[in-house]
């Protein structure tokens, strides 16, 4: 049985938080966006990126989601400061004071975490901050974006913008619900080293993670 817990207007249309048994689901403008059923690939997105960076990484997490990536970053010994960029105030509220708070053991209260309420693409255009790891999970994939504006991130100019926000030796990590050979090709053209991981899921095609560094 599914119970609707909250319905609010969002940046990309109606946002719905609902409970399905013991799990939570977030629906954006009628499209399934995320849930709390597994989260393995979301955790690996940040833990593998942190493994690739020596020392205490300064990490950007694009997309708060249900907090799985943030929790994994906080639990990794190689991660120091974390900046989370999330454009939906409701998602931040559900994670900070709402039912998602217990999913990640109140990760937002950790003093190492800074939450920025902003559109990631617009924020990256104006910021001069640099990071050891950029971990992006704001869409269902490079060709399955939540809004049209996000598509810029996965094009050549977007990859140039992301590379400019990396410190020397830094890592770009990108999450996708599907394999996208054309995006992998663009990554390899822009970055010197690219690793692709496929993570099996209970149903459907595996999740895909890309890790790229200059």
UniProtKB/TrEMBL annotation:
One BP annotation, GO: polyamine biosynthetic process
Keywords assigned by UniProt, alphabetized: Polyamine biosynthesis
Disulfide bond among keywords: no
Transmembrane intervals: none
Protein name as annotated: Spermidine synthase
Organism: Amycolatopsis orientalis (Nocardia orientalis)
